[in-house]
Amino acid sequence: MEHDLVVFVPGFLGTRLYRDGQDVWARCSERLIDSAATALTEASLPPGLGDALPDTPHRLDAEGLLQVPDSVPGLLSCLGYPDLRAALGDPPDAQFVPFGYDWRLSHRLVARQLKERVARELDRWRAEADARHPDRPDDPRVILVCHGTGGLAGRHYLECEGGRDTARALITLGTPQQGLVQAARVLAGQAVPGDAGADGDMAARLNEALRAWALNLPAVAELLPNFRAVRVEGGARERTITQRPVPGLPGEAVQQMRAFQEEFRLACDRNG
Asked: CB of 8 within 8 A of CB of 99?
């Protein structure tokens, strides 16, 4: 509807993360190949964080959407959002809310943050809508446009955080609804392929650093695949990671994924 508030939720890497005015992830990604373990320290999280916010020095400020391409090797990439407003039909400033967040954190936590932001912005927009849309058929609601993993937070907001009361529509673009095989590869230390030799040694060091970093990122555990993605050598049938463990993949991460998916499934059943 033309009088609704449009909220854009970016995906993994889609928000720039800052500390003391410095773009932390940009600095990490520049040094990732040469010194992965050192580079990723700046963007690390403490073990066992769960759905909580990290304390200093692990807390980062989410400020602005990504405008240029970026990636985590072997996991995910993002082309950025330089033409986002035009792609969404050039909504007025007051009617458009880009929701930046720390993409390292649990999608549950991000959904709660999204709920708080939507409540504030919708109250503000409804106060302005009388003058802008005096003949509207009903009160403004929210249209959520979510890219990539942002769709996981968006759907969790709708089903588990009461978002159905405020949202008119949820639009997801490229959202991994059932997870990603790449997440299993990263957490098992197999994200970047490499043969024997110098290149293989570099790949091994990068894989080790990525695994150590990703093990403490709730968002990555929640991205583990929930479909048949594991094939036994010589076998014809694929199985899920709960039926056939992946070597090196920690059981705690699998349990996090299952709990996240099950909570969403139960909420959908309750909501009809």
From this structure: yes
For 12-48, the pLDDT digits (tens) are 999 999 999 999 998 888 887 777 778 899 999 999 9
Residue whose tokens read 């993605």: 229
Which tokens hold the place of 33?
């190949």
Provide the CB-side half-sphere exposure for 36 (13 A, CA). 18
Q: How many Å apart are CA 5 and CA 133, to the nearest integer? A: 12
Tokens of 154: 């968006």
Q: What is the DSSP letter of 246?
A: P
Q: Express as a percent the part of the chain with pLDDT over 90.
A: 74
Cβ-Cβ contacts under 8 Å for 183 (sequence gap 6 or more): 75, 214, 220, 221, 223, 224, 225
Give the C-alpha distances (Å, rounded to integers) separating 57 from 20, 48, 53, 60, 222: 11, 16, 12, 8, 24
User: Whole-angstrom Cα distance, residue 260 to residue 253?
Assistant: 11
Q: Could you give the CA distance from residue 45 to residue 178 in angstroms, rounded to a whole number?
A: 24
| Residues 100, 63: Cα–Cα separation, whole Å | 6
For the record, the structure tokens of 271 come out as 């909501």
Report whether pLDDT(55) > 90.
yes
Structure tokens at 251: 């059981």
Give 50-57's long-range contacts (Cβ < 8 A, gap of 24+): 50/106, 50/218, 51/106, 51/108, 51/109, 51/218, 52/109, 53/105, 53/109, 54/105, 57/19
Domains of the chain (ranges; CATH) run: 5-173 (3.40.50), 181-271 (no CATH)
The SS3 assignment for 115 reads: helix
CA 149/CA 262 separation, integer angstroms = 17
